[in-house]
Amino acid sequence: MLAKSFVLFVGLFQLASAAYWYKANDGNEYFIEASTNYNWLQAMDQCSRQGLQLVTIDHPSKNAALTTLLRSIFNSSPDLWIGHHDEFNTKSDKYRSWYTPYTGSSISFSYWGNHQPDNTNGGEHCAHIFRKADFKWNDGRCEAKFGFICERPHQSR
User: Fold this and answer.
1) Do 58 and 109 contact (CB within 8 A), yes or no?
2) 117: cis peptide before it, omega within 30°?
3) Domain residue spans in the chain?
């Protein structure tokens, strides 16, 4: 009986902490981990271990499809890391450059929440979908622990 209880407990733990693949209405597929939290570098590593990368949101249509998908999964916006950073730029202005680590290119599309990015106390250098901004982005402290979204490298829009 104890062995069966242990197996049931382990099975429930795995179910509760599992990440899943989801398909957006534009055909792109995303691996979303929302139940276990990682800092930004750990999230990058978790994606990389599976041959994936943190999602790069580089076009309004990709953002719209991903936001629609996230709304269908979550009742409210969770904190989820995405693949953008500001190269640890200490400027606090909203218009400082943001990059994708996979190409080194600056991003030309963004979906920042109100008054973001703000680089609070000069320490917010990694982008995430923000629970307080209705699926819009925030610049967060890279050591903060959130879920994340991965995609296959070079996924088309």
Assistant:
1) yes
2) yes
3) 28-151
Which residue is listed with tokens 């409210």? 76
121 sits in the region (left: phi over 0; alpha: psi -120 to 50; else beta) called left
Write out pLDDT tens, residues 55-86. 999 999 999 999 999 999 999 999 999 999 99
Q: How many C-beta atoms lie closer than 10 Å to residue 126's C-beta? A: 27
In this predicted structure, the answer to whether residue 10 has a pLDDT above a threshold of 60 is no
Q: What DSSP line would sit under 52-115, residue for residue?
A: -EE----SHHHHHHHHHHHHHH-SSPPPEEEEEE-TT----STTS--B-TTT-PBPS---BPTT
Residues 6+ apart with CB under 8 A from 4: none
Residue 11 reports pLDDT greater than 80 = no
CATH class of the domain defined by 28-151: alpha beta
